[in-house]
Amino acid sequence: MNTRKITGIVIHCAATPNGRWHDVFDIDKWHQERGFKRSDEFRRQFNPRLLAIGYHFIIYTNGAVATGRSLSEIGAHAQGFNSRSLGVCLIGTDKFTIEQWDSLRDNVRASLKLYPEARIVGHRDLPNVHKECPGFDVKDWLENDMRPRPGRILEQAA
Ligand SMILES: [Zn+2]
User: Fold this and answer.
1) pLDDT at 157 over 60
2) Cβ distance 118 to 9 under 8 Å?
3) Superfamily of domain 8-152 in the CATH hierarchy
4) Which residues are catalytic?
5) What is the Cα–Cα distance from 104 to 9, expressed in whole angstroms?
6) Where are the domains of the chain?
7) Where residue 139 falls among pLDDT bands split at 50, 70, 90?
8) Separation of 14 CA from ligand 1 center, angstroms?
9) Is 37 helix (H, G, I), strand (E, B) or coil?
């Protein structure tokens, strides 16, 4: 299935209230509204109920990880960088639960095993991105051994 060359892993946030529960079908609906669309061919192979979602992984407030597009499917999450990247989205805006942080670390490490040459960046680290997504400094998180700074930890989910 790993037919695509992946050189980047792009971390996003959903820009939803910190700690509020949302699932992959909410994001799919929002991405439908933004005009995203998955191809019928990929939908037949993977997550057929998801019509639009642009991300590959979605990390819920309880730490569960949902899949969106398949790894071999080009995402819709980082303009100009989709063809060679994966998109990972944390539910929330700029504070995430410990469970989410643990899952993000494990998810990124698993992707690095498949794509050792991939660079890990935050959405806002890409050129011409004028938003705060993913709400934290990915470079600092990497330098801190993929551990969050205390101010970025949400104590309890809403
Ligand atoms: Zn983003």
Assistant:
1) no
2) yes
3) Peptidoglycan recognition protein-like (3.40.80.10)
4) 12, 55, 123, 131, 133
5) 11
6) 8-152
7) very high
8) 7
9) coil
| Cα–Cα distance measured from residue 55 to residue 50, given in angstroms and rounded to the nearest whole number | 11
Residues 17, 62, 45, 111, CA torsion sign = positive
Reduced to 3 states (helix: H, G, I; strand: E, B; else coil), residue 11 is: strand
Q: If pLDDT is split at 50, 70 and 90, which confidence band does 155 have? A: confident
Which residue's entry shows tokens 């004028």?
Answer: 130
Q: And the tokens for 16?
A: 């939803």
Measured distance CA(153)–CA(102) in Å, rounded? 11
Ligand 1 midpoint to CA 154 (Å): 19
What order of strands is seen across the sheet that includes strand 85-90? Answer: 65-67, 57-59, 85-90, 8-13, 119-122
Tokens of 154: 């949400």
Nearest-angstrom CA–CA distance, 38 and 36: 7
Q: Residue 13 has which token pair?
A: 């946030």
Q: Which two tokens stand for residue 122?
A: 């935050």
Distance CA 97, CA 2 (A): 31
Q: How much distance in Å is there from the Cα of 30 to the middle of ligand 1?
A: 13
Q: How far is the CA of 94 from the centre of ligand 1 (A)?
A: 12
Residue 31 CB partners (closer than 8 Å, separation 6+): 52, 53, 54, 76
